[in-house]
Design brief:
Rossmann fold, seven-stranded parallel β-sheet, 17 strands, single chain
Length: 352
């Protein structure tokens, strides 16, 4: 973060119950230019250490004794909101806990190597960890608020259910799991022609995200499969590690094409292909996130006559992706996240 002509190093606190893991993570952060200001051995110590040391960012293990990462995030957000990057194992339990921690207010997550992995296995993660900590350092975190948002009025929802042509494509990144929980769970089913979701996450975690959204939604929410059908009662989540393309009205496919700007899936791919298949019937929605993914794809959506909505800066964890769309003059309107579900349903119901 620049302070005039000088640059202050981002200050990080590392929380993990393993002394070895604390040392490894601290060394990686130090190599990347961060200042590690302290440690916590469990979630119960975390708030006290954060209050004393006032770090810019916390890295936090998901699975710990006494107080797990989910409870620690909730307590920290209530006591002294601080950006958190979760460090998670790739297990079913770890992935679910990570998504729950992201819903509770953590900014991002990184997958750590399997237990017992050599120190060499950690080295390739340094750049990813550094990028996520830098992004977290400029994120806006707030005290916890209810995830619930206003539901669309019944008459409006009925009109949206009757719409059969509109395709909704939602793109999100940093802070996205919590935003998606506020938006997707408030959408009626069926909704237009269907919903596609592109959320940047580590490989292995999008299935847990889909399951969490499905549990609270009228729509059926699941990961997209390789050759899948777009349905008005279903939201398909692009699996981490694959691009999601619309190949025709009602059909998608997954591809292993190379990452674009280090992202796979990339929302631009999904949006541009949706514009080709659905033309003016695409509604693009960009929620909180770092970078500009979505801008190029929405440019194609607009050229085809579709519409675009952006999350308002006031509720974004990181106002990057929405800012890019707004500043390019591509957004038809901006809404705070708790009003986005109503805005989507109204756009689908109106057909514009």
């Amino acid at each position: 973060m620049e302070l005039g002509a000088r640059q202050r190093r981002v200050r990080v606190l590392v929380c993990d119950d393993s002394p070895l893991m604390r040392r490894i993570i601290a060394d990686l952060l130090a190599e990347a230019g961060f200042e590690v200001v302290g440690y916590a051995g469990n979630g119960a110590e975390l708030v006290e250490r954060v209050r004393a040391l006032r770090p810019d960012v916390v890295t936090l293990d998901v699975e710990m004794p006494r107080m797990d990462g989910i409870a620690a995030v909730r307590e920290l957000m209530a006591a002294r909101p601080t950006p958190v990057v979760m460090v998670s194992s790739l297990t079913a339990r770890g992935a679910d806990a990570t998504v729950r921690a992201l819903e509770a207010g953590a900014v991002d997550a990184i997958q750590k190597p399997a237990a017992g992995a050599s120190l060499r296995a950690w080295q390739p993660l340094r750049d990813e960890l550094a990028a996520k900590v830098r992004a977290a350092a400029v994120a806006r975190v707030r005290p916890p608020a209810p995830l619930g948002a206003a539901r669309p009025p019944g008459a409006l929802a009925e009109r949206a259910r009757a719409a059969t042509r509109r395709l909704v494509v939602i793109a999100s990144s940093t802070g996205g799991p919590r935003a998606l929980a506020q938006v997707v769970t408030r959408l009626p089913s069926p909704l237009g022609a269907g919903v596609l979701i592109v959320q940047h996450m580590p490989v292995g975690f999008t299935a847990s995200l889909a399951a969490r959204l499905d549990a609270g939604s009228a729509l059926s929410v699941r990961e997209a499969r390789r050759h899948d059908e777009i349905r008005p009662d279903t939201a398909l989540v692009a699996p981490a590690g694959a691009h999601l393309e619309v190949v025709a009205r009602g059909r998608v496919r997954l591809t292993d094409d190379p990452p674009i700007g280090a992202l796979r899936p990339r929302a631009d791919v999904t949006l541009a292909s949706a514009a080709r298949a659905y033309g003016a019937d695409v509604l693009a929605v960009v929620l909180t996130g770092m970078g500009n993914d979505g801008e190029a794809g929405i440019r194609e959506v607009k050229r085809s006559g579709g519409r675009a909505l952006a999350e308002d800066e006031s509720t974004c964890v990181v106002y990057g992706m929405p800012r890019a769309v707004v500043e390019a003059g591509l957004a038809d309107a901006s809404f705070p996240v708790d009003a986005m579900a109503i805005a989507i349903v109204e756009a689908v119901a109106r057909g514009r």
